[in-house]
Design a protein that fits this description.
The complex is a heterodimer. Helix content of chain A is 0%, strand content 58%. Chain A is mainly beta. In chain A, a hairpin with a 2-residue loop joins β6 and β7. Chain B is mainly β. In chain B, β4 and β5 form a beta hairpin. Chain B is globular. The mean pLDDT of chain B is 89. Classes of the chains: A mainly beta, B mainly beta.
Chain lengths: 111, 118
């Protein structure tokens, strides 16, 4: 059974710092991994989708890397801003096409 | 990108009543939609898989008679919480992939529904 974990659970940083969020999964036989952002009381915003054949994906200040063999992915956020404050979730598709989500990292960027 | 619309975004109901939540794929057809539940400060957990034209598949521990799922068309799935109780208060969110798309494609999520049972 696939399990996804994320560390740290929470992170508070001053504006401008570069951040690393970590995601681990137990079953390395994944098709892809997706990073999402969730604002309080809101739905999910897809940030990056990284395929199993890829090692990284970039979108603006975000960069996601994937090491499938070790069961790890990292999300780098460059030059963090207060608007980046949210919960970041990583998820991998299950064989039934649903997602298995990590518990999330709650990020707070202080002005 | 593809859009999944979920309605209502927020609902407050009395204990014992039923609430229907709709999930629509606006610009693509989805043979399968997924319903997740998120309790405060917890991650999303799959409740059930909704299949167009057939019965939904429920995860272990989810009561199928309490959480009724209907997927009557390729663009609409509904989740009805029957005889709601305060412990059903949660954030419910649906997702869908376009029909015929495999595991390597992006899934899209609705905006979520905050259910509060008083």
């Amino acid at each position: 059974k696939q399990e996804v974990t994320q560390i740290p659970a929470a992170l508070s940083v001053p504006e401008g710092e570069n951040l690393v969020l970590n995601c681990s999964f137990t079953d390395s036989a994944i098709y892809n991994l997706q990073w999402f952002r969730q604002d309080p009381g809101k739905g999910l915003t897809s940030l990056l989708l990284i395929q199993s054949s890829q090692r990284e994906q970039t979108s603006g200040r975000l960069n996601a890397s994937l090491d499938k063999s070790s069961g790890r992915s990292t999300l780098y956020i460059a030059a963090s801003q207060p608007g980046d404050s949210a919960t970041y979730l990583c998820a991998v598709p299950n064989y039934g096409q649903n997602f298995v989500f990590g518990p999330g990292t709650r990020l707070s960027v202080l002005p | 990108g593809a859009v999944v619309s979920q309605h209502p975004s927020r609902v407050i109901c009395k204990s014992g009543t039923s609430v229907k939540i709709e999930c629509r794929s606006l610009d693509f057809q989805a043979t399968t939609m997924f319903w997740y539940r998120q309790f405060p400060k917890q991650s999303l957990m799959l409740m059930a898989t909704s299949n167009e034209g057939s019965k939904a598949t429920y995860e272990q521990g989810v009561e199928k008679d309490k959480f009724l799922i209907n997927h009557a068309s390729l663009t609409l799935s509904t989740l009805t919480v029957t005889s709601a109780h305060p412990e059903d208060s949660s954030f419910y969110i649906c997702s869908a992939r376009a029909a015929g798309q495999g595991y390597n494609t992006e899934a899209f999520f609705g905006q979520g529904t905050r259910l509060t049972v008083v």
